[in-house]
Write a structure and sequence with these properties.
It is built from 23 helices and 31 strands. The relative contact order is 0.07. Strands 26, 27, 28, 29, 30 and 31 form a 6-stranded antiparallel beta sheet that branches. It has a 5-stranded antiparallel beta sheet with strand order 6-7-14-10-11. It binds NADPH dihydro-nicotinamide-adenine-dinucleotide phosphate (NDP) and uridine-diphosphate-2(N-acetylglucosaminyl) butyric acid.
């Protein structure tokens, strides 16, 4: 059917090259679909501007087509007018003062070989990309770790109303396979700055890239990679391949036998076949790997992408970050990194910066809540309690285990109970502040409820004790004191009950404080994974103790357990972290990577662990969410004198009850009555305490 506006367009722009019913086989590399009703090919910027003024003035929808190497045509007639820049007016190539000016119609292989001829480097690794510069810029085309955006000085074009548009490198956000160049812009050219390079070397690099690509990728008709990679460690091609779907065919299209992320048109493919196959691959990968692949190709049909995405729905995750503790900044970084990893895996992620401990609507709406909060209410069990009470599924330990691992004094008590070696320790308060006599200097003073090494002070000499206490009492009224253990610091991550390789930490400060952990990044603190200075037995020993603590404390999903391996070779446990950091310098992702688990896989696995749990006691819909009370410190030890006094009084009360019973029993028996029940009851009451103690002992015997 002829487009109604066509005659008016021809009258308005008589020189404009217009083609009707152009087969998608002629204008796209994949070649599925029927034919594009109208294709306009402006020959210079002025004609392009005129065309855009006409289409916007007549409300005619348009789309831009470059080399067509990433496009999927449609079976039904396309309601949009296609605009393709004509070779004549948009293939400029010039070089002046180190700046290359190139037209948007130039194909990347052409652009690359011309720059290499001029002795310029940088682009050789992009030499095999078949699209035009325009398409490459819009999608920030890349290969082998290099993207076109890296070399751009300025991009120029026209917006869809026909007005000139341009933007400098820094005004554009260059993403993996995407840029912030507005959708309603036709790119006409760009300026690039390339480094000088040896011509012969670059020519050789270019040839080897083209050759490698020829071997790796299918020769038939395709639109390049179908899906974006989840990450460089989770390439879509491998994920599909592992589903054994090479050669899988629907109608006239099939998964390439050479590279599973390519779908090839076997000559008679329809758009509907292609969409069905993309849906099938997406479902298969979701089922086997738990990732929700996102298409890289562009569908002309506006209904196609929603249909593909509807094939399998990704879980909704509400990621909590920020918090109100000292560690807020770290949580913002960790949380953003986790959110990005989950998005790379195709999850539907909403991010909430929480500053108060309460239930929020987005938490209820999510399938899983993923708290990445360090310290404060995020890690001491309060937010977990709120979620448990609302029956929400969330990643990480529950409220009781969170509180236990956050509370350094409670942790010490548990370590003693479980027989896990730990530094000798004591507790000081404002009332009992003297240097514990049973501990040897140097000592470490710790604020019990702080994380990330906040509030840790080392006391080398007795004279430093009072000053150190003053500093620490500003943060808490009760402090943990422990003997300093000279040795090698290691940390053992546990993810879903699986122990990951231990990491050895070498801090420039002697001990791993906040600065060493976050401020100096990789440059100053050194990490070795696997640990380089310990024997396999020592690492195995630490791993066993870490698991003992993980189970003993009732933790789940994720835990990082810190140790110092002393000069005696014993791993002394310091503490557990139930929400360990996930920044660039964080340790759990490092260890996961060493054991072949990508960050994306690790975060996805944690989401699934939470999804499998059933949290009981759901609250009624829209119930008001009470602010959570501050947590009671775990096992706060009562005054021992008071306990002793109560015990004595209890014993006295027992004797006072027992004596009248025994006396009455004897008297009754003497008088010829059945007094023995009274006598036996009295004796029981008298012996009750000893009986309880005896039963307790029997129960504890293994
Ligand atoms: N790495 C590889 O091996 C491969 C990479 N590719 C990449 O795919 C992309 C395809 O390039 P190409 O074939 O030229 O593009 P296509 O013709 O396939 O068009 C793809 C999209 O690019 C946009 N586009 C194309 N030209 C322009 C322009 N002049 N101005 C504004 N937007 C434009 C359009 O986006 P919109 O619809 O949003 O306007 C269009 O939908 C490139 O990035 C290419 O490098 C392709 C195959 C293999
Ligand atoms: C093809 C495109 O870009 C390509 C680009 O050409 C190449 C070269 O740098 O790197 C990316 O492919 P890719 O990640 O699949 O790279 P490859 O080197 O082919 O494969 C990655 C890994 O997956 C494995 N792999 C790949 C395909 C397969 O069927 N089976 C398999 O196991 C490979 O063995 C390799 O270990 C880009 N794809 C994406 C989605 O980022 C495109 O954008 O259309």
């Amino acid at each position: 059917m002829k487009a109604q506006y066509l005659d008016d367009l021809k009258r308005a722009l008589p020189r404009l090259a217009i083609r009707e019913n152009v087969s998608y086989r002629d204008i796209t590399s994949l070649g599925v679909g029927s034919a594009l009703p109208v294709l306009a090919e402006p020959q210079d910027p002025e004609e392009l501007a005129g065309l855009l003024r006409f289409t916007s003035g007549h409300a005619i929808p348009v789309f831009v087509i470059g080399g067509g190497t990433n496009l999927v045509g449609m079976d039904a007639p396309c309601p949009m007018l296609g605009i393709r820049l004509h070779r004549n007016g948009f293939s400029e190539f010039s070089s002046e003062n180190g700046i290359i000016r190139a037209g948007a119609h130039l194909r990347l292989p052409d652009l690359t070989s011309r720059t290499v001829e001029l002795g310029l480097g940088g682009l050789a690794r992009l030499a095999g990309i078949p699209g035009t510069l325009g398409g490459a810029l819009r999608m920030n085309a890349g290969a082998n770790g290099v993207s076109i955006g890296d070399f751009i000085v300025k991009v120029s074009g026209f917006d869809f109303r026909g007005n000139p548009w341009s933007a400098g490198h820094d005004e554009i956000e260059w993403r993996y396979r995407g840029s912030s160049i507005p959708d309603d812009v036709v790119i006409t050219g760009a300026e690039l700055k390339l480094p000088a390079a040896d011509r012969e070397t670059e020519i050789a690099a270019l040839r080897s890239e083209v050759e490698a690509r020829r071997k790796r990728e299918p020769a038939g008709r395709s639109a390049g990679c179908t899906f974006r990679n989840v990450s460089e460690f989770e390439p879509a091609g491998r994920l599909i391949d592992q589903c054994r779907l090479k050669n899988y065919r629907i109608g006239g299209v099939a998964v390439s036998a050479e590279h599973a992320n390519f779908i090839v048109n076997l000559d008679s493919g329809r758009e509907s076949d292609y969409v069905e196959l993309v849906r099938h691959l997406r479902c298969a990968v979701a089922e086997k790997h738990g990732f929700y692949l996102r298409p890289e190709v562009k569908f002309l049909n506006p209904d196609a992408l929603p249909k593909v995405m509807a094939a399998v729905e990704a879980p909704k995750i509400n990621l909590l970050l920020g918090g109100a503790s000292n560690e807020r900044e770290i949580s913002l970084k960790s949380g953003s990194a986790v959110a990005q990893a989950l998005r790379n895996g195709g999850f539907d992620v909403t991010v909430t910066d929480v500053t108060e401990c309460r239930l929020l609507p987005e938490m209820r709406e999510a399938d899983v809540v993923y708290p990445v909060l360090h310290g404060g209410f995020g890690e001491d069990g309060r937010i977990q309690k709120v979620m448990e009470e609302a029956g929400l599924r969330f990643v990480g330990s529950g409220s009781a285990a969170s509180l236990l691992t956050m509370d350094k004094i409670a942790t010490k008590r548990l370590l003693d109970r479980l027989g896990i070696p730990t530094a000798k320790w004591s507790v000081v308060t404002r009332d009992r502040r003297e240097l514990p006599q049973n501990l040897k200097l140097p000592l470490i003073l710790k604020v019990p409820m702080e994380g990330s090494t906040f509030g840790i002070v080392k006391v080398e000499r007795a004279e430093e004790w009072d000053a150190a206490l003053e500093k620490e009492f500003a943060m808490a009224g009760e402090l943990l004191v422990e003997e300093y253990i000279d040795g090698i610091e290691i940390t053992v991550p546990i993810v879903n009950g699986e122990v990951l390789p231990a990491i050895e930490i070498k801090s420039p400060h002697g001990f791993y404080d906040y600065d060493a952990k976050y401020v100096y990044k990789d440059g100053h603190t050194e990490y070795f994974c696997p640990a380089r200075s310990l024997s396999a037995e020592q690492v195995a020993d630490a791993s066993r103790q870490a698991v003992k603590f993980y189970l003993g404390a009732g933790c789940r999903d994720i835990l990082r357990v810190d140790f110092i391996v002393g000069k005696d070779g014993v791993p002394y446990m310091l503490e557990g972290n139930s929400i360990p950091g996930c920044t660039a310098t964080s340790l759990v992702p490092k260890a996961a990577k060493v054991s072949g688990i990508s960050f994306e896989k690790m975060t996805a696995t944690l989401v699934y662990a939470a999804m499998r749990r059933h949290e009981p006691r759901p609250e009624p819909e829209n119930a008001a969410a009470p602010a959570s009370p501050a947590p009671a410190r775990l096992a706060n030890k009562p005054n021992p004198l008071l306990v002793k006094l109560c015990h004595l009084l209890f014993r006295l009360a027992l004797v006072l009850c027992a004596v009248p019973l025994i006396v009455s029993g004897i008297q009754a028996m003497r008088a010829g009555y059945t007094g023995w029940p009274l006598l036996v009851s009295g004796l029981f009451v008298l012996c009750a305490e000893f009986l309880f103690k005896w039963f307790d002992r029997l129960e504890k015997m293994k």
